[in-house]
Write a structure and sequence with these properties.
It is built from three helices and five strands; from the N terminus they run βαβαβββα. By secondary structure, it is of the alpha+beta class.
Length: 112
């Protein structure tokens, strides 16, 4: 195993943009299911909301959806761990995720 990530993230109406960012970092293929895809009677303002966005690419599976109970405030309840043995890949992923963001903890290498 070089790197592994499997996570589900929630966004306040911008899950599609978020999953596009993660696709730029990780690569892979995206599939998106919207409210209107499964409920043709949904209100017009609800039809484009993402029920499930899935990014699958080799060593990662990332899912995301829009939820009304989330906000754009800085989140303190989500942490992602990238685990693996491919130092170069881990550093590249960390740098891609950190771009434009706030790094709380720098990359740490644990030798066992």
């Amino acid at each position: 195993m070089s790197v592994e990530l499997n996570a589900y993230l929630f966004f306040p109406g911008n899950a599609e943009q978020a999953i596009a960012f993660y696709q730029q970092v990780f690569g892979g293929e995206v599939t998106i299911t919207r409210v209107g895809d499964v409920d043709p009677t949904a209100a017009p303002e609800q039809k484009n909301l993402v029920i499930n966005a899935q990014l699958i690419g080799g060593d990662i599976t990332l899912r995301a959806s829009d939820r009304q109970d989330t906000s754009t405030d800085p989140q303190t309840r989500i942490e992602l761990s990238l685990i693996g043995t491919d130092d170069a890949r881990l550093r590249a992923l960390f740098d891609g995720l950190a771009e434009g963001g706030t790094v709380v903890h720098a990359v740490e290498w644990l030798v066992t």
